[in-house]
């Protein structure tokens, strides 16, 4: 480390911004290519943030070196899957805190004034909106912004639509195609109106519209999701049949079909993307079930698309789910199952491999009792 670098408690050089909810650093040290990985790791573990002033590619190399060091501390799997899950979540939170302490300064125009740095302004504007002044952000999150921007430009192929969907930053991408395929092949009754709750990219709303639902209303709590879903239906020529709204879970009125693909794991998300995976105390699942009877038209049905990974991890039982369905005044009219195809389901190195390998995603057809 340079002799001029120093830890300071002075105000940060810009507004702190973290999509993962990391707290603003209380201590900061200016660092460049002269700092060693061991020193940087020690400072990060102690809670000191490093403001990078060196070469951009050097910052990326340092981040990879920090990743290797922190990954040496990954906990061993416990006997119970639920305990392994909790240990992994605790480790991942620790990992995010440590790696998030390598920071960069975005200029007032979202530019990055580092040697060999790419032009990040378009990607940052797409993620954060128009520039509002300098921002201090974790380098790791900036790399996520750049990766998301590439996804948005290239799009994700959705075979059920025969088209590409372009996910926006902070919106869960339809890379797990099994839930889309379930909605694409489930018997669809004639419906004038369908609701897609938690629409995200709008992919399920688009599938329903393509399959013949007369009018589809997609809802979400996220303004980023509203913009993304509206972009999706516009690109697909479905804007006259699909409406996107929020932030309420249910829109006003009733529908012949109500579809919901809630986050499949009860737990607290630590980033905007994790909101598509983790549902604190199963709140969205409970709200969907509780509100379904009063939002269905006569002879209508609800489709609950849900992975059973939580059951294999010991976080929820099948009896819990069936009891919740019954308590909402609903009965099961049918179910379609599919196996996951994502790479983690076949990775034996994953501490949760046994649970992931046994996972089944189901479309539950629910009707009032």
TrEMBL record:
<dbReference type="InterPro" id="IPR007848">
    <property type="entry name" value="Small_mtfrase_dom"/>
</dbReference>
<dbReference type="InterPro" id="IPR029063">
    <property type="entry name" value="SAM-dependent_MTases_sf"/>
</dbReference>
<keyword id="KW-0489">Methyltransferase</keyword>
<protein>
    <submittedName>
        <fullName>Class I SAM-dependent methyltransferase</fullName>
    </submittedName>
</protein>
<dbReference type="GO" id="GO:0008168">
    <property type="term" value="F:methyltransferase activity"/>
</dbReference>
<keyword id="KW-0808">Transferase</keyword>
<feature type="domain" description="Methyltransferase small">
    <location>
        <begin position="191"/>
        <end position="271"/>
    </location>
</feature>
<dbReference type="GO" id="GO:0032259">
    <property type="term" value="P:methylation"/>
</dbReference>
<dbReference type="Pfam" id="PF05175">
    <property type="entry name" value="MTS"/>
</dbReference>
<dbReference type="InterPro" id="IPR002052">
    <property type="entry name" value="DNA_methylase_N6_adenine_CS"/>
</dbReference>
<dbReference type="InterPro" id="IPR050320">
    <property type="entry name" value="N5-glutamine_MTase"/>
</dbReference>
């Amino acid at each position: 480390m340079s002799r001029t670098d120093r830890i300071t408690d002075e105000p940060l050089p810009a507004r702190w911004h973290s999509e993962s909810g990391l707290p603003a650093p209380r201590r900061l040290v200016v660092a460049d290519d002269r700092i060693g990985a061991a020193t940087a790791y020690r400072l990060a573990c102690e809670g000191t943030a490093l403001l990078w002033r060196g070469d951009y590619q050097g910052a990326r190399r340092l981040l990879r070196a920090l990743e290797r060091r922190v990954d040496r501390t990954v906990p061993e799997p416990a006997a119970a899957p639920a305990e392994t899950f909790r240990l992994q979540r605790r480790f991942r939170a620790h990992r995010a805190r440590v790696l998030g302490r390598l920071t960069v300064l975005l200029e007032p125009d979202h530019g990055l004034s580092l040697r060999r740095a790419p032009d990040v302004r378009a990607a940052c504007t797409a993620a954060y909106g128009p520039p509002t002044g300098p921002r201090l952000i974790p380098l790791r999150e900036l790399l996520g912004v750049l990766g998301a921007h590439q996804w948005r430009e290239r799009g994700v192929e959705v075979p059920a639509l025969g088209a590409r969907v372009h996910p926006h930053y902070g919106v869960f991408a339809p890379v797990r195609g099994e839930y889309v395929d379930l909605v694409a092949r489930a018997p669809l009754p004639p419906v004038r109106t369908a609701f897609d709750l938690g629409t995200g990219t709008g992919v399920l709303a688009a599938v329903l519209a393509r399959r013949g639902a007369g009018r589809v209303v997609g809802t979400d709590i996220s303004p980023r999701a509203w913009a993304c879903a509206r972009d999706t239906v516009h690109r697909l020529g479905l804007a006259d049949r699909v409406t996107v709204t929020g932030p309420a879970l249910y829109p006003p009125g009733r529908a012949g079909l109500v579809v919901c693909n809630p986050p499949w794991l009860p737990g607290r998300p630590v980033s905007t993307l994790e909101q598509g995976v983790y549902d604190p105390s199963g709140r969205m699942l409970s709200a969907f079930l509780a509100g379904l009877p009063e939002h269905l038209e006569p002879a209508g049905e609800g489709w609950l698309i849900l992975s059973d990974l939580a059951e294999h991890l010991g976080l929820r039982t099948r009896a819990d789910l069936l009891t919740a369905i019954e308590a909402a005044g609903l009965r099961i009219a049918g179910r379609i199952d599919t196996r996951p195809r994502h790479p983690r389901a076949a990775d034996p190195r994953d501490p949760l491999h046994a649970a992931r390998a046994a996972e089944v995603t189901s479309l539950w057809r629910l009707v009032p009792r």
